[in-house]
Amino acid sequence: xxQVREYAxxxxxxxxxxxLDLAIIxxxxxxxxxxxxxxxxYGRFITYxxxxxxxxxxxxxxxxxxxxEGIEVxxxxxxxxxxxxxxxxxxxxxxxxxxxxxxxxxxxANLNRMNLPIHEWIYxxxxxxxxxxxASGLRFDYQRVEEESRFIRGQLDIxxxxxxxxxxxxxxxxxxxxxxxxxxxxxxxKTALDYVQQHCRSSENWRLANxxxxxxxxxxxxxxxxxxMHKWSDIKILQSYQAIKPWCQLILEKLNPNFQKGExxxxxxxxxxxxxxxxxxxxxxxRDIKAPWQLTTQxxxxxxxxxxxGLKSRFQLKPDLLISQERKNHHILDTxxxxxxxxxxxxxxxxxxxxxxxxxxxxxxxxxxxxxMMLIYPKHxxxxxxxxxxxxAEELRLWAIPFCIETDNLITGKWIERFPSLS
Length: 423
Prior knowledge:
28% helix; alpha+beta; 423 residues
């Protein structure tokens, strides 16, 4: 399996020197990715640069071409070289939190298997929770069965029975209920299990999948499971199913090529790092913020151009995080999945000028030009302390703060005095 990181290039040029930022792939894989780049639904994660070269965007996860070549795309968590297992651990940790997945590392060290490729890690999480579900007992349900029988059982279907021919008069058309595990939730799990068994490459994953396929043999798979996923019941007797549900949904929605839009036979399991980082920071801050402070994600109540006579408001402003108290806005926080460099003072530490303009607009519209705002970037070895405050206006201040993914905390500094909600 090929390992690269965000923004890496993929090429068929065999004279190139492979690294985490450049990988040599097969021609069949290259052609398949070129086809995806031309599709509107897939082209956002890759760009056709020039003959023999493709450029990945800020998406992470796993790709597998129809010829079976796998590409694992890892987050770019630091400048320079990095260890793939550490990057994968960061990705697994963020996915577990952002997607509200049950990450039972405290209960079983076996779940913390960061040495597995990201797709095999997801398979293992699903299989481990399926093991717990089977041990606790699958839920059965009554199902209506209509059949011909020599004996009357349940209800006789009079209408059909009256049309019975003389030669089959000894048979009865009956309807009755059978207590069976073939309920919808079990069918969705069985469908995901079939896919895992077919595509996993880890011997341990295959062993578990094969074992459970025999246990669930009585349960039928679904041909179009995504159409039924929304019917998954959350009633009390299915409480033991809640832990496995997001893993099942993740496998059915992201991994199975038969259920994706488009007509290709490869596998695409990709997540945009900007959104992952934004949601991960939000989940960590929500844990720390206490009442009466409130944290709102993607606030959308303000516009650059306000209502005018006969005209509607235009250019909606949507900051990532808004901290308020008693319906009054106090702080704006915006997350950026970018690598800031403290030593690059001449280039504004790699902070984008458009980000400053964006926060300036947020401050004037949401905070009335008075207050403190924050740009949150991932912490790494060249950005491990907060920057000095930027004065955007007389009473409007902006802070650039590193967020440590390992400890799930903002790096403290002078800014803490200006943000009582985060102290």
